[in-house]
Amino acid sequence: MKFWVDIQRRRLRRGKIPEHVAVIMDGNGTWAARRGLPRSAGHARGADALRRTLTEAAALGVKYLTVYAFSTENWKRPPEEINYLLNLFMEYLRKETTELVRNKITVRFLGGLERFAPELQELMRKAEVETRNPRPLVTINIMLNYGGRDELVRAANQVLKSGREVTEAALPDYLFTAGLPDPDLLIRTSGQLRLSNFLLWQSAYTEFWFTPQCWPDFSGRSFRQAVRSFQRRQRRRGGVSA
Ligand code: FPP
Q1: 74 is catalytic
Q2: pLDDT by residue (tens digit) across 200-237?
Q3: For position 48, which CATH number holds?
C-alpha cells in the first residue's frame, strides 16, 4: 500500500503541482446523518480528514492550503453546533501545534476574527506565532467567519480610506489573502457544485474539482485524484493554448 502511494506521489511530482489548493470541506452533517450519528460526530471526523489532506499536500509539495472552516453564514446554525465547532477548533489548536511545528507547517487564520471570543482569538494568535517559519513546507490558511462578499466590501472600503482608487491592482492588497498567490485548484466535497461565497475574487481563474464524497471520507487518495485531474487541464486564462 505504502509502496503504491509513493509511486503515485512520485508520478504526480513529475508534473505540475498546484502551488495553492483551496478546499470547501462540505458534507460533515450528511456523513453523520447517514450513519444515524449527531452532526458533531461528522465534524470530529472532518478534523481527521483535514489532517490527512495536510499530510498529502506536504508530501506532494503544495505550498498553500486554504480551507473554509466557518463561513459568515454559518452563524445561522443552532448555537450548540456553533459551540461544538468553535471548541473543536480550540482543541485542534491545543493538540496539534507541536506536531505542526515539527512538520514545518505554518498556520494562519483569515477572516473576520474579531467576532470570536477573546480566548479563541488568543489561541489563534498563539498558534500563528508558534508555527511561524521562514521557510515553511506548507502554509495552511484556516478561513473563519469568512465570506467572499464581506471580504470584498471590507477591502474596497480600506482602499478608499487609504486614499487610493479601487483598481484590480489595489484591491488584492486589502483582501484577507493579501500576499498569497490565487488558488490554482479548488476542491469541494459532498457533490455540491457551487462556490458558496468562498474566495470570490481569488478564484477567477481557479480550476475546480468536485467529488460526491463527504468531507470525513476524503483521503490522501482523493487529494491525489484532484491533483491528477488538475494536471490534465489546460489553463489558458483567457488566452490561447501554447
Ligand atoms: C461542512 O459540513 C463543514 C463545516 C461547516 C465545518 C468544517 C469543519 C471541519 C471540517 C472540522 C475541522 C476543521 C478544523 C479547522 C479543525 P456541513 O456541516 O455543512 O455538512 P452538510 O452540508 O452535510 O450539512
Answers
A1: yes
A2: 999 999 999 999 999 999 999 999 999 999 999 988 88
A3: 3.40.1180.10
Tell me which residue range forms the domain holding 201: 14-231
pLDDT in tens, 171-184: 999 999 999 999 99
Residue 2 lies in a domain: no
Cα 177 to middle of ligand 1, angstroms = 21
The answer, yes or no, to whether residue 242 has pLDDT greater than 70, is no
Does residue 7 lie in a domain region? no
Query: Which residue's CA is the nearest one to ligand 1's atom 12?
Result: 47
Q: How far apart are CA 198 and CA 68, in angstroms?
A: 7
Residue 19: φ, ψ to 5°:
-70, -35
Contact between 239 and 23 under an 8 Å Cβ cutoff? The reply is no
Length of the chain: 242
pLDDT per residue over 124-173, tens digit each? 999 999 999 999 999 999 999 999 999 999 999 999 999 999 999 999 99
- The verdict on whether 87 is a catalytic residue reads no
Report if residue 5 sits inside a domain.
no
For 107-166, the DSSP string reads: EEEES-GGGS-HHHHHHHHHHHHHT--SS-SEEEEEEEEE-HHHHHHHHHHHHHHTT---
pTM of the entire predicted model:
0.96
- The domain total for the chain is 1
Q: Is the CB of 74 under 6 A from ligand 1?
A: yes
Atom 10 (ligand 1): residue with closest C-alpha? 46
Q: Which of 6, 28, 48, 74 is flagged as catalytic?
A: 74
Structural domain includes residue 236: no
